[in-house]
Design brief:
The protein is of the alpha+beta class and about 130 residues long. The protein contains 3 helices and 7 strands, in the order E-E-E-E-H-E-E-E-H-H. This is 8-oxo-dGTP diphosphatase.
């Protein structure tokens, strides 16, 4: 894998909801909702990076699952990869975000229709909805 890679956690609850995080920055994205995550550091696997990032950002430990089928390449040298996860310990805390929200399929669909989802994350909406409805 070459270039920068960002992993995002599609964190599902046991009752059919998905965790979204509201961005605090940069100004053009502040207030929009995203899957939480961050950059893969040199020497880390995708799973290790996701676990570290979710621990740092949300103060939770997760069990990492399967990748979503779609990866996003918003510009040359940058790839965004979403990975399914479940919280195994801790309660999510918005340490680096404005807010956190558990959403079901209907709310996710409505938020997407209103333009409240970070543009780069919108490519994952169909698969996230399928997970939530399945």
């Amino acid at each position: 894998m070459s270039g920068a890679i960002v992993v995002a956690g599609a964190i599902y609850s046991g009752d059919g909801r998905l965790l979204l995080a509201q961005r605090a920055y940069p100004p053009e994205l502040a207030g929009l909702w995203e899957l939480p995550g961050g950059k893969v550091e040199p020497g880390e696997t995708l799973d290790q990076a996701l676990g570290r990032e979710l621990c740092e950002e949300l103060d939770v430990d997760v069990r990492v699952g399967a990748r979503l089928d779609v990866s996003v390449r918003p510009k040359p040298g940058l790839e965004l990869i979403a990975i399914r996860a479940r919280i195994v310990s801790g309660a999510p805390d918005a340490t680096e975000h404005l807010d956190l929200r558990w959403v079901d399929a209907d709310l996710l669909n409505a938020m997407d229709a209103r333009g409240e989802i970070v543009p780069n994350d919108r490519a994952w909406i169909p698969e996230l909805l399928a997970d939530l409805q399945g």
